[in-house]
Structures are given as C-alpha cells and as structure tokens.
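S.,

Sequence below, as promised.
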Amino acid sequence: MKTAVVFYSMSGNVRQTAEIIAAKLGADLIEIKPGKSYPDKGFKKFLWGGKSAVMGECPKLMPYDFDSDRYDAVIIGFPVWASTFAPPIRSFAEDNSDRLRGKRISAFACMSGSGGEKAISKLRTLLGIDGFEAEMILIDPKDKPKDSDIAKIEAFCKKIKTAFC
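The prediction came back faster than expected:
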C-alpha cells in the first residue's frame, strides 16, 4: 500500500500532524500552498481566511507533485476555518476529483475552536464519497499538545492500516 498525506497548514498544527502520520505509515508528504498566502496574524487572518472558506473560494495553488497513479490511499489534512476546510483543500479536491475516485481516502482536521465535524462532512460531500476510511479531529496539537493526541493519531493510523488487511 502506497499512501500520500496531502495537507495544507497555516500555523503548523496540520504540518506537524501530517509529518507524524507520514512517519508512522511510511507515506509521502505533499504540502499544498496557495499562490497568494493568507494573512496569518491578527484580525485579518480570521477575516480573509473565514471569508474565503465561507464563500467556497478555490485559490490558485503553487505547483505540487501529486501523481495519483502512485497511491492506493490518500490522507487529506487541513485546518478548520469557519466550520469548513481551508480553501486550498477545496482547490486540491476539485483539481484532482477524477484522480481521487477509487482511492482509499482518509481525512484529519486541526482546529482551535469548533466545527471539525462539519468540515469533515463538507469535504466528504465535495469528494462525493459516503465515508472516509478514517477520520480524526485534533485541537491545537502543536500549540497545546496532549497525551490524548498521540493516542488519537495511533488509532487513526491503525484504522488506515487495518483497512488494507
């Protein structure tokens, strides 16, 4: 089983989690970034990021290397913005919708507040799938680490491994 962890991270919470998952599964890391960065501090961060997420914007992405033929499974990681997934994930999903069909897809979200369940549900709808192989929500795992986060990541990875047995 060859797996890709595709992720967008603004503050590093998703990046750290993606790196841990990739190490545990022997997966490739594929970071996606918008062509134009979002403000990452203060009020502008929430205003522009939230507006972009609520409006369902699809920002142009910087070039990234994702060859779907190389992967049996794809894990998508994202921050939760305004109870949905960050816009770069929308761009990735729409750009690769045909190439993701038939893949085993899992998702994880990192958030500071709430809305993770809604965000995962919205991503599932966008991808046109009934469910993910595994899904996980963490609250500020880099900024406010908890022992329970490691247990959640272990369970998430175990569920993905079990799906291939």
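The radius of gyration is 15 Å.

Coffee later?
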